[in-house]
């Protein structure tokens, strides 16, 4: 099966908590990698998201260690949607 990884940046205006983490993450911009697999349906090609990874800490934060943490793509998008509500 053909796979690809795409990268985007999520901006959180307020601190947030990732599922399964005790520590609250500060507001900021975070790189997110999406793993996708190719779906072949006749003459059309489509990609299905099968995983997501958020890079910690936020962009521009100096830290002794960096992590790439798996997170449910739907949960991540729901957190960002909630963050953008007035």
Note the gap between the termini: 42 Å
What low-confidence regions span 5 or more consecutive residues with pLDDT below 50? none
Give the averaged pLDDT, no decimals: 91
Instruction: Output the helix-strand order.
Output: EEEEEEH
- Integer tally of domains: 1
Q: Indicate the proportion of strand residues.
A: over 45%
Which structural category fits the helices and strands?
A: mainly beta
Counted beta strands? 6
Helix share bin: 10-25%
Number of helices: 1
Give the CA-based shape: elongated
Biggest sheet descriptor: 4 strands, antiparallel
Rounded to an integer, what's the Rg over CA atoms? 15 Å
The side-by-side strand order for the widest beta sheet comes to 1-4-5-6
Structure in words:
The protein is mostly beta strands and 86 residues long. It has one domain. The chain is built from 1 helix and 6 strands, in the order ββββββα. It has one helix at residues 73-83; strands at residues 3-12, 16-17, 24-25, 28-41, 44-56, 67-71. It has a 4-stranded antiparallel sheet. Strands 2-3 form a two-stranded antiparallel ribbon. A hairpin with a 6-residue loop joins strand 2 (16-17) and strand 3. The longest helix has 11 residues, at 73-83. The protein starts with a strand and ends with a helix. The relative contact order is 0.25.
Short descriptors:
single chain, 1 helix, 86 residues, four-stranded antiparallel β-sheet, 53% strand, mainly beta
Provide a compact summary of the structure.
With 86 residues, the chain is mainly beta. Helix content is 13%, strand content 53%. The chain contains one helix and six strands.
